[in-house]
Amino acid sequence: METIETTSTVERGGYALQFDLGSFEGFNFRESSAIDRVLTGDEVVNWDHDANGEAEFWPSGENAGVSLLFKDRSAVTGQDLLELDRVLQELGDDSTFNYLRIHHAVNGLGTYLNQLTGEQVEDQNIHVFEGDHFIGLRKDAAFELFELYYPEAYAAWEKSNCDGLIFDEDRFLDSPVWSVDEVEIGDRKALIVAPQ
User: Fold this and answer.
1) How far apart are CA 87 and CA 128, in angstroms?
2) Which of 16, 42, 101, 161 can bridge 11 by disulfide, Cβ–Cβ 3.0-4.6 Å?
3) Is the domain of 65 the same as that of 30?
C-alpha cells in the first residue's frame, strides 16, 4: 500500500492547513454542549480530544466547497480536513472547479477521501458546467456534449433546414449515456456530467 505524505507544516506542535477550509461549529461531549465559538480548520485539525474533550465538528457554511463535500456527513474530523488539504495541494489550488471534481470522486463515485489522489481527480472523465441556473446549464451542456461526442450528427442537425428536426436537451442529458449531477455550491449552480 502506498503511503501518501502530507505537506502540511508543523506549527506550535500542530498542523497548519495550506488552504482556508472555512470555519466549523462543534459539540463537546465532555461538557455536553455546543462549543461556544466558531473554530478555524486549523483548530479542528489540532483539537486535543484528551485535553479539551471528545468533540465532533461540521462546516459552518463559510466555505461552499467544504460544505458541498461534507453535506451528507454528520461530522468532519481533523483527519478529513488534512486529507482534503492534501488533495487540494496536489491539484494546485482550492478553486470551485477542484471542489466540484473532488465532490464527484467522493460523493458520486464513492472514493474515500483518504485514498483519493490529485492524479485520480485529474483523470476523471467528467465535464463541469457552472452558472446561475440549471435550465441554462442543462441547455449549454447538452449542446456542447452533442457537438463533442457526436460531431457528424451535430453538423447535420445544425445545417438542417427542416423545422421539425428538434434537439431535446433534457432527453439528451437524461439518457442512460450520461450521469448528471446538479449541484448547488454557495450561490452558484453546477452541472457535473460524466459518460456512463
Assistant:
1) 18
2) 16
3) yes
Distance (Å, whole) CA 153 – CA 159:
10
pLDDT in tens, 129-176: 999 999 999 999 999 999 999 999 999 888 888 777 888 999 999 999
116 & 54 share domain: yes
Q: Please report whether residue 1 resides in a domain.
A: no
What pTM, to 2 d.p., does this model score? 0.88
Q: Report in angstroms the alpha-carbon separations of 60 from 20, 70, 144, 169, 183.
A: 13, 11, 36, 36, 18
Close Cβ partners of 106 (under 8 Å, ≥ 6 residues apart): 69, 112, 113, 116
CA-based diameter of the chain, in Å? 75
CA distance 166 to 98: 35
Tell me the per-residue pLDDT of 22-72, one tens digit each, with 9 for 90 and over. Answer: 999 999 999 999 999 999 999 999 999 999 999 999 999 999 999 999 999
DSSP annotation of 85? H
Helices 78-91 and 96-103, interaxial angle, to 10°?
A: 120
Beta strands 39-40 and 23-28: pairing type? antiparallel
Specify whether the CB–CB gap between 35 and 42 falls below 8 A: no
What's the domain range around 56?
Answer: 9-123
The rounded distance, in Å, linking the Cα atoms of 195 and 177 is 6
Q: Do 186 and 64 contact (CB within 8 A), yes or no?
A: yes
